[in-house]
Every structure is written in C-alpha cells, then in structure tokens.
Amino acid sequence: MTAARRPDRDGATVLTLRSTWRLPAPPDRTWDVLADPTSWPLWWPGLRSRVVRQGMHDGVGTRGSLAYLAPGYVIRVGLEVVAALPPGAGRGGCGGVGGCGGVVLRAVGDLRGRALAVLRPDEAAGAEVTTATVLTIDWRVRPAGALLRRAALRAPRVLEASHAVVMDRGERGLRAHLTATRSWGSLGR
C-alpha cells in the first residue's frame, strides 16, 4: 500500500491511498464478486454492508452503506457507483477504465471523495488464458469524521497503517473466497 497526504485549499487533509491486490481468479470472475457488495461481509472480516439503492444494470447509481471495525474505531462510509465498465466491455475486449475493467465510486460519511478500482489480467501469472487479476484501488479522500480529522493531523501514519490493515484483511479474505469458490462457479457466490 502507498499513501500520501496534503492539505487542500481549505486546509483540510487529503489522503491519497493506493492498494494493489493480486487475486487468484480472472477479471470477470473477480468483477462478479466485487459487483455484489452484499457479499463483501462474507469474505471481508470486520465489514458490514447493505445496498441502499440499486442502480442500473451496470451498477451505475447503486448506493451502499459500509461500516468497518478498523483498529480502534468504526468507520462509516456511503459509496455510490458513478461509473462502471466491466472487464471485456471496452475496446478490443480489454479497453476498460485504465485497464480491463473498473469502477469509480463517490464516498460520503467519515471519508469524502472518490475511489477508482481497476481490474486487469495479472500478466505475471504467466498463463495464456488469464487466471489471475491485479486489482488496484486508489482513494482520494478527506477525513470528515472528527476522530479521523484529528488523526489525519496528529497521527497520519497511524491512520495510514490502519487503512493498510483494513485493506490487507480485504485482500486476504477475497483471495480465500475466490479460491474456495473456484470450482463451485455460480453456486459458490
């Protein structure tokens, strides 16, 4: 995970956080799991989620509510899908948002800003047929909750380390879920 912080025009701290996950499933299978936020608590320890409003068939307009028990606090974030392009939907079967597929999310609540998640085949896996995915998640957010604003000013490395723990739990959980459901196909979802 990489992290950076800087003040914006109002003097508030803007966090730029990047996580890169290597996952044992092709981009389309990974997309199917990620496109169902109600399943996230099944594989992401500490996370609760619910869909507040279902969007269009591609997910655009879908709104969800997340609560995560992070080390030392609970973070509450609302997410809305503002743009989505599933793997293979772009030019040449792999056009997508910066790669083979992606989604842009608007965040409100304890964190305000945007996230961009991009899925692409993991070419390092070395298979002619893609069996693995690299998922890159970029957050550009302002802490909005009082506790998070104070942490961003007084202990930014602690906040960044907490984010790294949360994202590591998500990656490990999703890896295990994708591995366990690999042979079950849609029955395992």
UniProtKB/TrEMBL annotation:
Q: Which InterPro entries did the record assign?
A: COQ10_START, START-like_dom_sf
Pfam families the record matches:
Polyketide_cyc
Question: Coenzyme Q-binding protein COQ10 START domain: from which residue to which, for each copy?
Answer: 23-57
Q: Which domain of life is it from?
A: Bacteria
- This chain's protein is named Coenzyme Q-binding protein COQ10 START domain-containing protein
